[in-house]
Amino acid sequence: MSTTETTASGIGPVEGADASVYSVDNPAPLIEPPRKRTKKSPKSTRGNFEMAAWLFMRLSGVVLVVLVIGHLLIQLVLDGGVSKIGFAFVAGRWASPFWQVWDLLMLWLAMLHGANGLRTVINDYAERPNTRLWLKGLLYTATVFTILLGTLVIFTFDPNIR
Amino acid sequence: MATPVMEKSDKAPEPGFADSPYITVTFRVRRFNPEVSAEATWEDFQLEIDPKERVLDALHKIKWDLDGSLTFRRSCAHGICGSDAMRINGTNRLACKTLIKDISPEKPITVEPIKGLTVLKDLVVDMEPFFQAYRDVMPFLITKDTNEPTRERLQSAEDRERFDDTTKCILCAACTSSCPVFWNDGQYFGPAAIVNAHRFIFDSRDEAGEQRLEILNDRDGVWRCRTTFNCTDACPRGIEVTKAIAEVKRALITRRF
């Protein structure tokens, strides 16, 4: 380390500041490194979860490309486009197990993919543990609610409802 | 590559240019002295300097001729010891490998400490968390055979080539302190630690690859990498850091499945 030119007080003159506050008897406060890994910092106990999450993002992403583009084509482009969508159209599609599985898969993969992505965003950007806890709590609640509601609708959909 | 290189110019040098090689350059240095103020401030220094000099020479000029209280690390001054990584014009570089003419000296050149580590004074940061992550990956040869070998451990040229890129690391922390994931909470191992783990994981003579992979499989290990390539851009040795991290990820996946 290249050290400073020390004067008698050990502190070089700095303009516009009062250097007399600290002395040998009253030393400047020690700067605690905020990120030092100590025995107290949490050790990972999550096994392969992060790897599984990382791998899931890649694989679900690939599958979602097919599912979502197919979905958009059918719903918005082919055969009359968006104007054809109505209760009857949805009822007709969900009469077939193929489209039920397609939509179910899309729902689960998209929700988990998005939730996992937001989880990493929260991990990266939320700095206080409490903020993380609340944001993740909100995220997981919303995800579970949407997945359960969607699944329920796909399986219990009644075309004759009135 | 992080360090700018001289651009080839077919223009003839302007007349009068050869009279004096010196130009006036403003250096805007981030100053911090905890014994005086809790706030860091910018301080401008004007220098007459040859643009073919390096930023480190300018810092020396400031320290030796203008303000002896300016504090920074440097040791070899030739891009090998890794002491003088700093944020110059917003990019992590080695001050001793950055020529002034390559970083638009007509505008003020900003010099700051590297980000994500505690600033102790001016351009000096506390490197301890960085070295802690380095130590955590056990950057030394580990063999199961505890007896001292009677001859050297032989290795083929191909096996040596496998990890050649990551042997170049000088631990300057330019990569780790350019990583946005590290900036956030500093618990992420950081590119430099992963590069040095890579150097042993892919070394055919080393036998603790599995242990090192397990360490990097941590919540704050390789999976926190967001492949932003900041580390590859920042590396003054031109190591393909993000590629090394990706190879560790791949090794983690392929050893399981």
UniProtKB/TrEMBL annotation, chain B:
Keywords: 2Fe-2S, 3Fe-4S, 4Fe-4S, Iron, Iron-sulfur, Metal-binding, Oxidoreductase, Tricarboxylic acid cycle. Binds 1 [4Fe-4S] cluster. Binds 1 [3Fe-4S] cluster. It is an enzyme of class 1 (oxidoreductase). It catalyses: a quinone + succinate = fumarate + a quinol. GO terms for molecular function: 2 iron, 2 sulfur cluster binding; 3 iron, 4 sulfur cluster binding; 4 iron, 4 sulfur cluster binding; electron transfer activity; metal ion binding; succinate dehydrogenase (quinone) activity. Pathway: Carbohydrate metabolism; tricarboxylic acid cycle. InterPro entries: 2Fe-2S_ferredoxin-like_sf (IPR036010), 2Fe-2S_ferredoxin-type (IPR001041), 4Fe4S_Fe-S-bd (IPR017896), 4Fe4S_Fe_S_CS (IPR017900), Beta-grasp_dom_sf (IPR012675), Helical_ferredxn (IPR009051), SDH/FRD_Iron-Sulfur (IPR050573), Succ_DH/fum_Rdtase_Fe-S (IPR004489). Its cofactor is [4Fe-4S] cluster; [3Fe-4S] cluster; [2Fe-2S] cluster. Its EC number is 1.3.5.1. It holds the Pfam family Fer4_10. GO terms for biological process: respiratory electron transport chain; tricarboxylic acid cycle. PANTHER family: SUCCINATE DEHYDROGENASE [UBIQUINONE] IRON-SULFUR SUBUNIT, MITOCHONDRIAL, SUCCINATE DEHYDROGENASE IRON-SULFUR PROTEIN. Belongs to the succinate dehydrogenase/fumarate reductase iron-sulfur protein family. This is Succinate dehydrogenase iron-sulfur subunit.
